[in-house]
Amino acid sequence: MKKANNLKALNFFKENMGIIIALLVLAIFLTVFPATSSSFPTAKNVFNVLRQISTNMLLACGMTMVIILGGIDLSVGSVIALSGVFAAGCVSRYGMNIYLAMIIGVIIGIVIGAFNGIVISRTTIPPFIVTLATMNIARGLAGVYTGGSPVRVVSKEWQWLGAGYIGIFPVPVIIMIIIFIISVLIMNRTKIGRYIYAVGGNTLAAKFSGISVSKVKFMVYTYSGLMAGLAGVILASRMYSGQPTAGDGAEMDAIAAVVVGGTSMSGGYGKLGGTLVGALIIGILSNGLNLMNVNSFWQTVVKGVVILLAVFIDYIRNLKKSK
Fold first, then answer.
1. pTM over 0.90
2. Which of 60, 275, 76, 43 lies closest to 165 in space, CA to CA?
3. Pairwise CA distance, residues 141 & 196, whole Å
4. Number of domains in the chain
5. How far apart are CA 246 and CA 64, in angstroms?
6. Strand (E) or helix (H) holding 151
7. Beta-strand (E) ranges in the chain?
8. Cα–Cα distance measured from residue 195 to residue 217, given in angstroms and rounded to the nearest whole number
9. Cα(37)–Cα(155) distance, rounded to whole angstroms?
10. Is 126 within a domain?
11. Which positions, given as ranges, span the membrane (predicted)?
12. H or E segment at 152?
């Protein structure tokens, strides 16, 4: 058993050698670079980076499954906003129990994810179009519900989920670790995980082998919605309010983490371990650019270049496989 685990670890490092080296080079550069050497390699900043990537990693866990399936989910950023404002509104406007309100926020994410899954699995409408539509619907509903203003919640209980600690560890980081482990178990230890790879690799062959393709798609998009709903509640808790603009561009960060982590955009291939490394690269890159006071517009340009480079590497890899 120990030998098998060691072999898996070795295979993981071999498959992800490029991005692991990139992560180490980035971390070393920020540690020795004069503008960041005093602020980057501190325990406080490390926990800050982990807290910042926690919501992105939740989205990326769902997005990894979606992309392996051969799909895309553009709605997750808007679901963050809608889940956050509704959860906050349930507390501040209706006096609802905080934990019940948070559960309602997560349920909103599940409902939108399930809707995406139903439409995508039962029609031939491309996932890009379906989730683009729900992205706009969810963002619009968040704006309508709040009138464009934040919904504030000042309770310490509310703030604990996003800004609290268990010992020295931020609560969002602990949640991220738990969700990551659950997602890895789903992908590697369950039938649905094997079915996701099968459908993403060859939908027709999966259907002929007896796999319910529509059921697999429904479950994956519902899971992605669940992750977005949970991320929305955590982010609203961290910001002490539900913000109708929250999660703007979050879907791009999640896709970036997944693609940088080595998941193929054509479907059928990818690992959550790679996604974790990808999320760390995106998080550390953003943190380093902030510490260097780089303009936010240039940060967006850099992220775009990173995504393009990762997709190009995936293209080269697929080209070699086809030969």
1. yes
2. 43
3. 31
4. 1
5. 22
6. strand 151-152
7. 151-152, 165-166, 169-170, 241-242
8. 10
9. 37
10. yes
11. 63-86, 98-119, 125-148, 160-187, 218-236, 272-291, 297-316
12. strand 151-152
